[in-house]
Amino acid sequence: MSGTPPKKHPNSRPGRGQTAIGHIGARLALAALWLLHLLPLGAIDALGRGLGALLWRLAGSRRRIALRNLELCYPQAPAKQREQIAREHFGWLGRSFLERGLLWYAPADRLRGLIHIEGDVKLAERSDRPVMWLVPHFLALDVAGAGILLNQTRRAGSIYQQQSNPVFDRAMRRGRLRFGNAEIFSRRDGSKPLIRAIRRGDAFFNLPDMDFGRKDSAFVPFFGVPAATLLAPSRMARMLDMVVQPVVAQMLPGGQGWRVRFLEPWTDFPTDDPLADTQRMNAWIESEIRSHPSQYLWVHKRFKTRPPGETGLY
């Protein structure tokens, strides 16, 4: 008999042993996050940057994705400059992993002291129309959500990507919902539950800048590169007569906390042209990225989906 083990079917599920190991690993990681939340943010920042340096060396596929994204978005910049941005990005990325302990477990008063709010965080409470917060994928976007929930009473709804590990998925849901004025819906369930919640009076925390394929998307320039971008922000805002308020979250160095900027709502959005609206949205996100490029989520394959006939970029 051959000593080569049989190949697993590509759709086979992990066995009980693998599942148990995954659950134990998730519980250990969550225990570490709980312990970390007891530390000052400055210490978490330092540990996070150390973790980021380690990830830079070990997470080769994500490092290559980040460098490729930066090459596509900043083609005129020297390669060394793009690498420096990517290295800084991994430092912030490492911190973003570790500071979830704070966001999920720290007392509300401690978080209020660390989240520096700029602008009108209470717009949704006063508005007669439902509010959509447009929140691009900067690494502190979960802080933007916490800033909203800690500073207003109106319920906020959002869509999230269900985690493959159920232990970690439950912890993430519990952490995001712990203030009692939020509800989140799995992307697998589609948009109908969210639309019903908005019609009941919820505001909508919308993350509009990821590649979810061609469905309901258009290829809209992002740093000059066609990027599959959902038309839903424009279409939903128009269908539900929503006020659209851009929100940007930024990590501050050391133990200074985070800055969350609630910008003036867009008075001419949506229009009757979803494509033009989406182009405007991407242009705005670009302008925010240029202000602090190392904190944008460069490890996501933003340009994975290509127009018909184009070859892949990764």
Neighbour order of strands in the largest sheet: 1-9-8-2-5-3-4
Query: Which secondary-structure class do the elements indicate?
Result: alpha/beta
How would you describe the shape? Answer: globular
| Largest sheet, strands/sense/barrel | 7 strands, mixed
Summarize the structure.
The chain has 314 residues and is an alpha/beta fold.
What secondary-structure arrangement, pairings included, does this model have?
Layout: H1 16-36, H2 41-58, H3 60-73, H4 79-98, H5 100-105, H6 108-114, E1 115-119, H7 123-126, E2 131-134, H8 141-151, E3 156-160, H9 166-177, E4 182-186, H10 192-200, E5 203-206, E6 217-222, E7 225-230, H11 232-239, E8 243-251, E9 258-262, H12 274-291
Helix pairs in contact: 1-9, 2-4, 3-4, 11-12
Structure overview:
- This protein has helices at 16-36, 41-58, 60-73, 79-98, 100-105, 108-114, 123-126, 141-151, 166-177, 192-200, 232-239, 274-291, and strands at 115-119, 131-134, 156-160, 182-186, 203-206, 217-222, 225-230, 243-251, 258-262.
- It is globular and about 50 Å long.
- Strand 6 (217-222) and strand 7 (225-230) form a beta hairpin.
- The protein is built from 12 helices and 9 strands.
- The strands form 2 sheets. A 7-stranded mixed β-sheet has the order 1-9-8-2-5-3-4, with helices on both faces.
- It is α/β, with parallel strands linked by helices and 314 residues long.
- The protein has a domain at 107-295.
- 47% of the residues lie in helices and 16% in strands.
- The chain starts with 15 loop residues before the first helix and ends in a 23-residue tail after the last helix.
